[in-house]
Amino acid sequence: MKTSITFLALLLISSFSFGQDINKKIDSIITDNFKKNPEVGISVGFIGNNKEFFTSHGKLNAESQTQIDKNSIFEIASITKILTSNLIAQAVIEHKIKLDDYIDNFLPKAYVLHENLKNKIKISDLASHQSGLPDIDFGKLVALDPQQPINTVTEKTLSVIINSSSELKDYGKYRYSTIGYTLLGLILEKVYGKSYDKIIREKILEPLKMTNTLTKDFYVKNRTTGRNTEGGIQEFIKWNITAPAGLVKSNASDMVKFLKALLDEKTEVGKAGTITEKIFYKDGNRELGLGTNILTDDKNTIYLKSGDSMGQSSIICYNRAKNWGIVILLDQRNSKMRQNLLNTIYDTVLK
Q: Which first-to-last residue range defines the signal peptide (predicted)?
């Protein structure tokens, strides 16, 4: 018995030391990046074997003395798609929908598919960016209003795009789609008879106690200030019909709660996560689940999703087999920096 207890104690100490070592290495990488780029605020959350770690640098804005921390609010932008696809998977588990159901009967009355498009587009096609549907012209919207580019996008805007489409030029091929995830939000509203806002709150935010994750009314004291690629101040994008595609605001603390639930297959979020992780699209360059990119080498399979608003960048990544997850949030639109940070952390610490 003494031998067993001693062995167990040594094992626990070894595990603790290993976790501490990972945390120190991540902190060192993030600190070094901030020293080189002091104009970019950052907040990082990591979970490994159910142990949480956070590090952050910078201030909420140029006029504030308040430091960014794990509770500071950022735009997670297209990481929202992972939340939406998780809700879709939960609806599958609850037998509300099937992933190979055609979207025809789940759309609001305002959307009328052309005869050529009927019974062709599946729910999984929307979630894996291969529906072939035309998308919102984001570049044109940015030119019209660089601060709030989707401010004028309404249900009528979307229904006109869908209803006037008579062919799917690239069905079955990858093409990133905002409108696809907007339609997934409408499908969720149809099957649950509730708003997307209420659904995401009841099925993810409230059960996981993600009290600082915002879907609207996000002008709170602890929010960061977004900055575009030139360093100019950028407003947080406002909530509207396209919310399921990228308009959620959150922080490192809450996103680690989400990662923790995602890695635990006993939770509803974790059960749904295993569905979103199945490969629904594959070509020579990428593998996609539902709302998530899948990267595999000879030792690891990781799932990740990045997000870029007009003024902030973020990325979330996890390895189910090795039970770790990480989220990186930047207060400036800088996709290269957030990707380089993840690559460095993964290659030198987590791989």
A: 1-19
The angle subtended at Cα 313 by Cα 310 and Cα 316, nearest 5°, is: 140
pLDDT tops 80 at residue 13: no
Q: Maximum Cα–Cα distance for the chain, whole Å? A: 76
Dihedral sign, CA of 333, 252, 344, 25? positive
Distance from C-alpha of 29 to C-alpha of 39, rounded to nearest angstrom: 16
Annotated domain spans of the chain? 23-350
pLDDT tens per residue across span 85-132: 999 999 999 999 999 999 999 999 999 999 999 999 999 999 999 999
Q: What is the reported pTM?
A: 0.93
| First and final C-alpha spacing in the chain | 36
Residue 239: how many CB atoms within 10 A of its CB? 18
pLDDT digits (tens, 9 = 90+) for 150-177: 989 999 999 999 999 999 989 999 999 9
Please name the helix (run of DSSP H) or strand (run of DSSP E) that holds residue 341, with its range, or none.
Answer: helix 335-345
CATH of domain 23-350: 3.40.710.10
- By the 8 A CB rule, do 222 and 253 touch? no
